[in-house]
Design a protein that fits this description.
Pfam families: V-ATPase_G. The protein is mainly alpha-helical. The chain has helices spanning about 1-65, 70-110.
């Protein structure tokens, strides 16, 4: 009789372990999906910003070409663009760790 109750207890433990593994797997899958989504959103945002910046640069370049002294203006625009690129790179490197930590915090938090 005792072996029957032990056998039932073992089955309950195995079922609980199986259910726990399913929960962990679901959380892992959700985490990976969220990381993929966050990466895609970031890439889209970067592409949009890059396109917008390039259009602005081309517009300014076109204005310079029509305004006359294009050699000095082109050089000035190139310097401004290089300075802006350096500024954006510095800003990105400064906040990238915080962004990654924030994403990981939100992705690894499992809500019931």
């Amino acid at each position: 009789m005792e072996s029957t109750s032990n056998h039932g207890g073992i089955q309950q433990l195995l079922a609980a372990e199986h259910e726990a593994q399913q929960i962990v797997n679901a959380a892992r899958t959700a985490k990976m999906a969220r990381l993929k989504q966050a990466k895609e959103e970031a890439e889209t945002e970067i592409a949009e910003h890059k396109t917008s910046t390039e259009h602005g640069f081309q517009r300014k370049l076109q204005e310079v070409k029509t305004s006359g002294d294009s050699g000095a203006n082109v050089k000035r625009l190139e310097q401004e663009t290089d300075a802006k690129i350096d500024q954006l790179k510095n800003e990105a490197s400064r906040i990238s760790k915080d962004v990654v930590e924030m994403l990981l915090k939100h992705v690894t938090t499992v809500k019931n």
